[in-house]
Design goal:
The chain is α+β, with helices and mostly antiparallel strands and about 280 residues long. The chain folds into 3 domains: about 1-50, no CATH class; about 80-225, no CATH class; about 255-280. It contains 7 helices and 7 strands. It has helices at about 35-50, 60-70, 80-105, 185, 215-225, 225-245, 250-280, and strands at about 1-5, 10-15, 20-25, 110-120, 130-140, 150-160, 165-170. The strands form 2 sheets. It has a 4-stranded antiparallel beta sheet with strand order 4-5-6-7, with helices on one face. β1 (about 1-5) and β2 (about 10-15) form a beta hairpin. α3 crosses α5. The N and C termini lie far apart (about 55 Å). The structure holds zinc ion.
């Protein structure tokens, strides 16, 4: 399950283990949780954010802070690199949750090493998938314990009030083997993704539809960008946002707005009363 909150920049993923315990990604204070209620309570505390005292903030200071920062204090106006890193960390948490679930369900011992490629694919309304190439280390006492291998994984998003993700394809692949055409990846520019010869569902047909960014390319380009220039632009953007709240310091303007609002409310009430009276007549 992926829990979202308007104060958080990325979802919190939740996995329920065999014994009914709720594990969150990232780990929230107090977890893992014995019940959904306990998780929900921790989630809302986490979404409320920083523990610093904000009770002395003016209304203007609060609005500026909420416009510039997520609840954990990270900037909303961010460099391309910060946005790419944030999204990479988000995908990392999703993959970790899916692998932990698979390890538990099938008694496997795979440990995520690295996400080599990932691509988000849309095949229509409520038809979203991820394709991943990941390297994993096998743990345990088997002959191949400690070896690192390349895997392909496909994760589907199930649209509900709280969306869920599940692995619909997961298999080891030969990094030197012949690739299989996946329209979902190639149409989005993810040309280095390796696919298995069978068993994956998304990308089999060319829908010529729903092209998104190539996730590999976005991350790669973000790392090459000149941070100093971008940082200067971001500071200017943050200043513009701060200044957009300056009208709150204009006492005369605020009084006019307050009076105008009161007049409109009174007018609205009067219209309602007149309509009710007309209905009675
Ligand atoms: Zn693909």
């Amino acid at each position: 399950m992926a829990w979202r909150h308007f104060r958080l920049h990325t979802p919190v993923y939740v996995r329920v283990d065999r014994s009914g315990v709720y594990h969150s990604y990232p780990e929230l204070p107090g977890g893992p949780f014995e019940s959904l209620d306990a998780f929900e309570s921790a989630f809302h505390t986490y979404a409320r954010g920083r523990s610093t005292d904000t009770s002395k903030e003016t209304n203007k200071e609060r609005l500026i802070r909420e416009s510039l920062e997520w609840s954990d204090g990270t900037r909303k106006v961010a460099t391309s690199l910060q946005i790419a890193e944030r999204e990479t960390n988000n995908v990392q948490r999703l993959v970790k949750a899916l692998l932990d679930k698979k390890n538990e369900d099938q008694d496997l011992k795979y440990e995520l090493e690295h996400i080599v490629h990932w691509q988000l694919i849309c095949e229509g309304p409520n038809a979203w998938y991820y394709h991943f190439n990941i390297t994993m280390k096998t743990k345990g006492v088997n002959d191949d314990a400690g070896s690192v291998n390349l895997f392909f994984a496909e994760a589907t998003r199930v649209q509900r009030d709280t969306p869920g993700y599940f692995l619909c394809c997961f298999c080891r692949i030969d990094p030197n083997g012949k690739d299989v055409k996946c329209h979902g990846c190639t149409d989005n520019g993810s040309i280095h993704m390796k696919h298995p010869s069978t068993h994956f569902h998304c990308g089999q047909t060319d829908l010529s539809f729903g092209y998104d960014a190539c996730n590999d390319e976005v991350c790669c380009n973000a790392k090459k960008m000149e941070d100093d220039d971008e940082e200067e632009e971001l500071r200017e953007e943050e200043e513009r946002i701060r200044e957009s709240f300056d009208y709150l310091d204009d006492v005369e303007l605020m009084e006019k707005l307050r009076k105008k609002r009161a007049e409109l409310l009174a007018l609205h009430s009067k219209i309602q009363e007149d309509e009710e009276a007309a209905c009675k007549d």
